[in-house]
Design brief:
By secondary structure, this protein is of the alpha+beta class. 39% of the residues lie in helices and 23% in strands. The protein has five helices and eight strands; from the N terminus they run βααβββββααβαβ.
Length: 185
């Protein structure tokens, strides 16, 4: 893509913050981690310190992972950018990963979602990240049957204007990429 002034146009960067209705989830995860820490201290100091301490440590690992990943959305929101290389996603606690345009099969915008179907693994993003998990749960079955890979940006979770993301993708998408606008459904 060439800019009229010469060179390539700058990338389109979007910051997707959590909606007010779901901001309580990271706060609850942080409170859970603090309560777990207090309880772990009490158990280690108690009569079953060794066995209880080991059990609490094992239980604490997923709690800590949950708390860090959830609080990450408040401290460092999700970012999405479109440029000549592809669609780049930077999760709150994960390095930025780019899905090249050649790896994207289609993009569909619905009032509640923007679904990005991919042909290959999705830029080495973890399978458990919200965008990939939502895709597996919400993507239309006929579209996802080919690879089962993709991203789903939910408007009820993130402050997202589907039309804005669709415009950013259209700006850089190659000619053969299917970009569907079903926002008026």
């Amino acid at each position: 893509m060439e800019n009229p002034e010469g060179g390539t146009p700058p990338p389109v960067l979007m910051t997707l913050r959590l909606r007010r209705q779901v901001e309580w989830v990271p706060v609850a995860a942080l409170v859970l981690a603090v309560v777990w820490g207090i309880a772990a201290g009490a158990i280690v100091d108690g009569p079953n310190g060794t066995a209880g301490g080991v059990a609490m440590a094992v239980i604490g690992v997923p709690i800590a992972v949950l708390a860090v990943s959830c609080v990450g959305h408040l401290v460092r929101p999700l970012r999405v950018s479109a440029d000549a290389a592809g669609l780049t996603v930077r999760l709150p606690v994960w390095p930025a990963r780019t899905v090249p345009w050649s790896g994207i099969s289609r993009v569909t915008a619905l009032p509640q979602y923007v679904i990005v179907g991919c042909r290959a693994p999705v830029g080495k993003l973890p399978r458990t990240c919200r965008l990939r998990a939502a895709y597996r749960r919400l993507a239309p079955a006929p579209d996802s049957a080919a690879s089962g890979q993709g991203l789903c940006f939910e408007t009820q979770v993130f402050e997202l204007d589907p039309a804005e993301l669709l415009d950013a993708i259209r700006r850089y998408a190659p000619v053969g990429l299917r970009v569907t606008d079903d926002l008026r459904r």
